[in-house]
Structure formats: C-alpha cells, structure tokens
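To: structure desk
From: M.T.
Subject: fold request, one chain
Message: Could you run this one when you get a chance? Sequence is below, nothing fancy, just the single chain.
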Amino acid sequence: MTLDEQVAYLTKGAEETIRVEELRARLERSAAAAKPLRVKAGFDPTAPDLHLGHTVLIQKLKHFQILGHTVIFLIGDFTGLIGDPSGQNATRPPMTPEEIAANAETYKKQVFKILDPEKTVVDFNSRWLGKLTSYDWVKLCSKYTVARILERDDFAKRMKEHQPLSVHELIYPLVMGYDSVALAADVELGGADQKLNLLVGRALQPEYGQPPQIIMTMPLLEGLDGVQKMSKSLGNYVGIAETPGEMFGKLMSISDDLMWRYYLLLTDLGQPEIQGMKDAANGGGAHPMDLKKELARRIAGDFHGELAAEQAQADWEAQFQGKALPSNLEAKTFSSLSPIKLFRLLTNLGLTENNTLAQRKIKEGAVYMSAGESDPPNWQRLSDPTWEFDPRNFPIAVLKVGRRVMKVRFEG
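Reply: Done. Structure tokens follow.
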C-alpha cells in the first residue's frame, strides 16, 4: 500500500485519531527505518467471554498487524483489580485475583480467533505495576493534576450528585497511562469511552522521555437491539465463543440500518465496497436479506471457518425460510416430571441466562414450543411466564427462544 492507502486503511471506522498527521509521519519513519510500530490495546478481564463489541478494537489491531506492525494485546490483570470507572455512576465492586486470572485465560484463547498468534505479543500489566515501590507511585501521581482528572464527565457527575468517588478510581487513568510508558507504545487503541484514559497515557510519555503516543478511538458497537451498546448483561450481544449457528441467527435479527454499521466495524471491507452494496440495496439491485446473510456468513466464518459458516446459513435458511429444524439440533434430557414454571424451565435448560431474562423473552413473544418430534415443527407461542409446564403432558418438546432451538426429552 502507498502511505495514503495505509492511513486510510488504518483509520477506517475510527471515531477519532489524535493525530492523523502524526500517524502518517510515524508510519513513514517506520518504513524508512524498517522498524515496526508498537500498537497496544488493553482489556481488563472483568467478564469471562469476549463479544463482537470487543472485536471492533481487535479487528483494528489486526489491520496494524497485516501491515507488519507489532501488536500488543494487553491484559489488565492489575487494572482489573481496580475497575475502570469510565461511564460508571458508582464504584465497581472489586474482583478477586482468582476471577481475574480465570477470565484472562479465556481472553488469551479467544483473541487468537482474530489475531495471528505468531505475531501477537500478549502481556499483563501486573508485570510492571506490581513492581512499583511506594516512591514510584508517589512519583507517578506527581505527573498529573487532580483538576485534570476531575474534568472527566463521569467523575464530575458523581461529585455533583454526591455519589461516592474513591481515591483508587482517581488513579485508574494514571495506572492505565503508565502502561503506555512501560510498553513504549507508538499507538494506543481504545473505545470512544476510553478517550480520556488514553489521553493520560499520551501526556505521561513525554514525562518519561518518550514521544507521545497516537490515539485511535473506535466507536462503541450497538448491540442487536440497535440502541444500547453491546453488553452481556443486557442480553444484546454475540459472543465470539458461540456456535456458528448461534452467531448466524443472532446477526440475522439485526435491522437493515444496523447491518451497515456492522459491515463497517466488523469486516475488512472498505468504505467504497460497503457504499456500493448499500447503493445496490437502495436501488433494488440487491436484497437486504441477502446482504445480511453475507454479513452473518462473513462474521461466523471469521471465528469458525467458511465451511461452518456455510452450514450455519443452510441451517438458518432451512429453519426460518423452509421451516425445517436445523441439522445440528441441540438436544437435552430434563430429569424431572414435576410441573415447573415456564420461565424457570428456560433458565434450567440454559436457554436463558437467568429468570428475569426468561420472563422478559416470554413477554416479548420470543418463546415458542412444538410438542413431539414433528419436522417441520408445529410452533405455538408461549406468552405467560407463570404457565405451569407439565412434562407428563409433553414427554418430548422442541423449545425456541429467539434464534436458539432445543429438543428436550423429559424423564422421571
């Protein structure tokens, strides 16, 4: 690629780059010296699984990796113990070192579904933060003012509303900024909500004799609902460890408008190609449903391979367009013949994560049942969360929650 093409490729989909001219200059120097840039992104392992919202950053790391630069996937096992206060209206409860370590292990496995393991540096910030002496901490705190930290909207809001703001939360941006010093980062990537944390790293580096890093913030990916950012707690997420069928089915549920944003942030397609597809859909030259299938197949293929993605599409088409059950129908045995509330049954089967979500899905009309083993199934919508499901009346039933389908055999 030419220098202009590299800049366009690397900044595609970014919300803000501070600064583009510095990125251009550093890319030029990198090529002249045959010395790759050091590009980092940090992830606090506060949940066990990554979802597509996380991969917006990881895909951008991949773009730098494709151009030959050194990518550092930083696991914040130290900062995770503090808890990122960004966007929080209350102090986060602390996690245990054991929880952090377990989540970090899953991150290491999952990230290589996107990044090349041979070309990725995986590091942990406890490696340097755990070694800082009391003197080092005092010295670090002297590099930044309280006034600048309190400029953060989330901190200012909590103080105005007389909400607790702990001292350890105030030093989180400093600790995250020091990661850039320890790694001598040329570029740091982060979500749009991380901009102020990234700016602290840019400000700290000159204090330690390093050039300030370039900052690239990526948009926060909306979840399947198209409204709130993708979050496991909100149930609007696509996990990268999910099966190809689950991924494909969830992605087919997004709106046509949201599809273009997913194309932009979750695929390697350039803006001209995406715009061409959008123009074809608007002009009647392509059907949005077909373009959404292509998106779902691309994303499922990124994590599970082309063959698995193609099978997921075939199963989805058979199930939702041909009305047949999927070829890889999930099956379970429920060892009880006692009547049970419908919402509790869904949670016990693992079709929903908790009883609250189960009740919400039922009320939304997203839960169906077909008695017996008929194929195609005879779906009936279940709309009462408190309905007593009696397994003696339905020894075999097929349950559908959203895009997920499961055959259940009930035994005493």
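Reply (cont.): The radius of gyration is 24 Å. Let me know if you need anything else for the meeting.
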